[in-house]
Amino acid sequence: MSLLILQLPARARLTAQDATPAAPHAPGTAEYTWVLSPDGRTLSSEGRCAAALLPRAASVLAVVGETDLAFHRITCPRAPAARLRAALAGLLEEQLLDDGEGLHLALDPAARPGEAAWVAACDRAWLAGEIAAMEALGLPLERVVPIAWPDEARPRLHVHAPVSGPLPDGDSSSLFDDEAGQVTFSHAGGCATWPLQGSAARALLPVPLPQGLQCSASAALAGTAERWLGRAVPVQSLAERLLAAAQGGWNLRQFDLAPRHRGLAWLRDGWRQWLTPAWRPARWGLAALALVQVLGLNAWAWVQRQDLAAQRQEMLQLLRSTHPQVRAVLDAPLQMQRENEALRAAAGRAGDADLEVLMQAAASAWPDNLPVQTLRYEGRQLTLAAPGLQAAQAEPLRQRLEASGWRVEATDGRISLQPGRGGRP
Length: 425
What we know:
Distance between the termini: 62 Å
Number of strands: 16
Structural class: alpha+beta
CATH class of the largest domain: Alpha Beta
CATH topology of the largest domain: Nucleotidyltransferase, domain 5
């Protein structure tokens, strides 16, 4: 399944020069760095363009930059799902710099109640605006993930350019004199990003460095990172980082930002696609097929009605030819049965529901040496009472009679016998 991975533009912040907010962009109007993957593991293409020009994929995922997300360590509360968001805000009240109502919180996917866990926090209005903008453009975000997060198993250090802008032109060594380069360090103790300048940047790293630390850098900052760390640093492009972030387990779309009515959105998008001119031949073909089916069903129903009328006419003719004394025909099968019963009774022959036939059927399967106490014949049913009849004897008796086409009921030492609905074979 194809996967489109987007990097959300950095949130507007106050500038250090004049302490005024940077000009914010309207959600969905900025250019987005994107990566397209056919299976979520390999890259097929990448680029940067406006939201309206983004390629289409079966699934869409957004990545939040390092400086737009903060991680806090807490003990996961034992609270129901409906109150978990409020419980997290209460635990983080003293750790958050902003008002908790204006922040969006997301819990570590590996969190367990009563155990230590990480909580991600970001500006709620900014993230909600980006999600709404993508959905308005027909790109519903299945997940929103961080580009870096606390990881005890795989500590990482990456030297990169800020998300908000490109690297300056010229020699990358000038990064020691400005704030163009950044360091993102994620390990078991947390995840932090700071500018790559001066001696303080190196002092922020723990001593000694965590075992198994994986270092990387963007192509423009690889040489600077090697001199800064004193070791060889492999190059990792932004596209590779985005793909690695998509393979993580985090999903920031939780609580009030969780996807809703996703099935309805898919149906709506599918209906819009169905109404496009490209699908016009398919619509005409489906309409023609439905019309042919309706005409065929009506023709088949007409044939069936004709056959049924012909069968009824044959039944009427058979009744009148066999029993000419019947003048008014209301129910040919029932009248035929009644006339046949009358002829049988006049001839003195026993019918299937007569006492003699029922007695013969019962005698053919009755157990040996089992006396019958009482006998009752009512209409078409014969009831035999035998107090000594055991369940082990009643079951074989019932099976033999039913095999001959009789309806049998055995309860409390009584056997009731009558002809089956379809008559005996």
